Amino acid sequence: VQLQASGGGLVQPGGSLRLSCAASGFTLDRYAIGWYRQAPGKEREGISCLTSGGIVAYIADSVKGRFTISRDNSQKKVYLQMNSLEPEDTAVYYCNTNPPGQWGQGTLVTVSS
Predict the structure, then answer these.
(1) What sign does the CA torsion over 59, 63, 66, 68 have?
(2) Of the candidates 1, 49, 63, 72, which lies 20 to 30 Å from 31 by C-alpha distance?
């Protein structure tokens, strides 16, 4: 099971980004997949998760109404659409199974003017 997150970058407050998570070695309907993040000086937290059936199982209160998780089975990708970004969203974002397995590199999102 390999998952690789990408799509991070520098964005101004109020802006948007879409993160992608590419899966290899398995099909997305085999596992629940989640997005996690780790802000500087803080513990890693789960922010949203899809069941193996593609249902949104969880979304953190801190991102509810701003972030949307989705997946494309044909592309073997899971996405995190992030709107109305705030400086507090600055973090390294990871995708992983739920419960999580080995962690990949993550992708850095910096929200700053």
Answers:
(1) negative
(2) 63
